[in-house]
Amino acid sequence: MNKKNKVLLSFIGSNDAGKLNDKTDGAILTALKNEKFDHIHLLWNKGTIKEITYEKIAEYLKTEIIKRNLRRRFLRTSFQ
Fold first, then answer.
1. How far does the chain reach from its first CA to its final CA, in angstroms?
2. Who contacts 46 (Cβ-Cβ below 8 Å, separation ≥6)?
3. Which of 7, 60, 70, 77 supports an S-S bond with 32, CB 3.0-4.6 Å?
4. Residues of the chain with pLDDT under 70
């Protein structure tokens, strides 16, 4: 029997900036702390919130996910 992979597919939002905005973990990191996923796909649009780009938030999330060992495979995708 083949094992089913668990996939987290999520758009990055402003609350995911976490420590970049001097706040606690956003929805994505909270979900990853509470549930294990085989693959993580983060999506975002080109844009800025409070002088922080979504791409910078994606980099922050990648760093935190790797540092906290919350992933097996990780993919980031920007929609230009």
1. 40
2. 53, 54, 55, 78, 79, 80
3. 70
4. 1, 72-80
CA–CA gap between residue 70 and residue 74 (Å, rounded): 10
The packing angle between helices 54-67 and 27-34, to 10°, is: 20
State the pTM of this model: 0.82
> Do residues 32 and 8 make contact, with C-beta atoms less than 8 angstroms apart?
yes
Q: What are the residues whose beta carbons fall under 8 Å from the beta carbon of 20, sequence distance 6 or more?
A: 52, 56, 57, 60
- Encode 26-53 in three state secondary structure: CHHHHHHHHCCCCEEEEEEECCEECCEE
Question: Using CA atoms, how far apart are residues 35 and 16, in angstroms rounded to an integer?
Answer: 17
